[in-house]
């Protein structure tokens, strides 16, 4: 059975690469590429309705409609549309939140092409595709909340504002976070990244400010929780 896909990702090079990969498969047809949630909703709201079976959705989209905010709206307004989240962030709490928000699957962006293709076909045929540690229950007729829980209201819940904070991090800052999480000092990080120690210290301060954290202990805990 042919599957008509929509790709939502604000990285044009990645989106084009995915489109090229999927278009080589005889049973997969890419109907559109979208760089924001608003662009996707505008396309879906057309009359007559466009042909679409499955959305390949990144979580990190420009505000106000990041992936987690968008998911419940897609479930309410287009309940027949399948959604496979394809993201670089894959912590257990985030995957659980994605499942609770109405996604039919979750796949890390590091997955091989054959795994991605298999996941798309499985979700299209009605299966739920999540990491083994997640066991979501299919709730086809259940009403979904109109908004995500705010940070701190429910243990283990990742709020949409966390995704917006994560989007502010540069690639270099993510490298610094990874090395901090591994226990390296500023001097050691400077040596590994060929930076001045003062530059690393500045990166650390900026990271704490962007993420709204108060120190290295909170940063390490946050990094573990969100797969940084």
Automatic annotation (TrEMBL):
<dbReference type="InterPro" id="IPR039420">
    <property type="entry name" value="WalR-like"/>
</dbReference>
<keyword id="KW-0238">DNA-binding</keyword>
<dbReference type="InterPro" id="IPR000792">
    <property type="entry name" value="Tscrpt_reg_LuxR_C"/>
</dbReference>
<protein>
    <submittedName>
        <fullName>DNA-binding response regulator</fullName>
    </submittedName>
</protein>
<dbReference type="GO" id="GO:0003677">
    <property type="term" value="F:DNA binding"/>
</dbReference>
<dbReference type="Pfam" id="PF00196">
    <property type="entry name" value="GerE"/>
</dbReference>
<dbReference type="Pfam" id="PF00072">
    <property type="entry name" value="Response_reg"/>
</dbReference>
<feature type="domain" description="Response regulatory">
    <location>
        <begin position="4"/>
        <end position="124"/>
    </location>
</feature>
<dbReference type="InterPro" id="IPR001789">
    <property type="entry name" value="Sig_transdc_resp-reg_receiver"/>
</dbReference>
<dbReference type="GO" id="GO:0006355">
    <property type="term" value="P:regulation of DNA-templated transcription"/>
</dbReference>
<dbReference type="InterPro" id="IPR011006">
    <property type="entry name" value="CheY-like_superfamily"/>
</dbReference>
<dbReference type="GO" id="GO:0000160">
    <property type="term" value="P:phosphorelay signal transduction system"/>
</dbReference>
<feature type="modified residue" description="4-aspartylphosphate">
    <location>
        <position position="58"/>
    </location>
</feature>
<feature type="domain" description="HTH luxR-type">
    <location>
        <begin position="162"/>
        <end position="227"/>
    </location>
</feature>
<dbReference type="InterPro" id="IPR036388">
    <property type="entry name" value="WH-like_DNA-bd_sf"/>
</dbReference>
<keyword id="KW-0597">Phosphoprotein</keyword>
<dbReference type="InterPro" id="IPR016032">
    <property type="entry name" value="Sig_transdc_resp-reg_C-effctor"/>
</dbReference>
<dbReference type="InterPro" id="IPR058245">
    <property type="entry name" value="NreC/VraR/RcsB-like_REC"/>
</dbReference>
